[in-house]
Q: What sequence folds into this?
C-alpha cells in the first residue's frame, strides 16, 4: 500500500482531513504555504509537497489543491506514484484556475470571495462559503483563511505521466459536476460521491474508503 499525502484546497488547511486520517493509517496531511494570504507561488506550494516525501506517494488534492499536486508531479515525477483529484480543478495545459473558473458554466464561486487591496490575496465571504461549501455538512466557514492570488493565476504546461484518478461530488455547488467531468477527460479511473464540495466533512469514512480503493488501483 502506497503512502498518501492529503492536500487541502483554497481557504482551508490540513485540519479538513481530521475525520479522514483515522481511516487511512498510511496517510498524512499538510498545510500548503500561503495560508493567511502571504505571497506564495504555485511552485513553492509544489515544493512544500515534495519536501516531505520519502517514498513514491499518491497525492490527493481537493479543489484548488489539484493544481498543487499536479505541479509537484511535474516537478519531481520520481516522487509521485499517482494523483487523485477530489472535486478538484484538474489542470488543462496553458490554463490557470482563474481561467478555468471563469469558463465553468454555473460555477458557484463567482462573487464568493473578496480580493485584498493590492490583489496579492483573497478570502471567501463567510455567508457565501456556508452556502457553497458546507450546505450538507458542519459549517466551518469561520475557520477559513485568506489565500495568495498567484497560485490561482498560474497555468501548468501539461499533464504528468503518472496514473491519475478523479473523485467527483455530484451535489457540488462550487465546481458543478459537469465541469468536474469535463476537466477529467482522459482520466479513466473515476468515481462519484453523493455530496457537496466538502466530502471530508459530509462523509469522511466513505471518502477514506474511496481514496484507499483508488490508491490501490493506481499502484497495481
A:
Amino acid at each position: 500500500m502506497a503512502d498518501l499525502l492529503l492536500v487541502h484546497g483554497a481557504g482551508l488547511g490540513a485540519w479538513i482531513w481530521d475525520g479522514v486520517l483515522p481511516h487511512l493509517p498510511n496517510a498524512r496531511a499538510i498545510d500548503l504555504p500561503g495560508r493567511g494570504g502571504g505571497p506564495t507561488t504555485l511552485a513553492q506550494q509544489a515544493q512544500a509537497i515534495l519536501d516531505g516525501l520519502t517514498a513514491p506517494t499518491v497525492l490527493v488534492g481537493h479543489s484548488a489543491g489539484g493544481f498543487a499536486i499536479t505541479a509537484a508531479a511535474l516537478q519531481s515525477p520520481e516522487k509521485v506514484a499517482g494523483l487523485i483529484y477530489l472535486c478538484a480543478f484538474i489542470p488543462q495545459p496553458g490554463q490557470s484556475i482563474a481561467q478555468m473558473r471563469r469558463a465553468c458554466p454555473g460555477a458557484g464561486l463567482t462573487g464568493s470571495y473578496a480580493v485584498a487591496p493590492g490583489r496579492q490575496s483573497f478570502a471567501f465571504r463567510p455567508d457565501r462559503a456556508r452556502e457553497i461549501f458546507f450546505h450538507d455538512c458542519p459549517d466551518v466557514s469561520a475557520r477559513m483563511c485568506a489565500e495568495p492570488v498567484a497560485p490561482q493565476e498560474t497555468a501548468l504546461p501539461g499533464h504528468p505521466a503518472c496514473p491519475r484518478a478523479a473523485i467527483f461530488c455530484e451535489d457540488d455547488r462550487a465546481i458543478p459536476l459537469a465541469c468536474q467531468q469535463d476537466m477529467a477527460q482522459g482520466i479513466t479511473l473515476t468515481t462519484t460521491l453523493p455530496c457537496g464540495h466538502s466530502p471530508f466533512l459530509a462523509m469522511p469514512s466513505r471518502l477514506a474508503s474511496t481514496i484507499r480503493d483508488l490508491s490501490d488501483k493506481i499502484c497495481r
Remarks:
- The helical segments are 42-51, 65-75, 97-102, 126-133, 177-183, 199-202, 204-218.
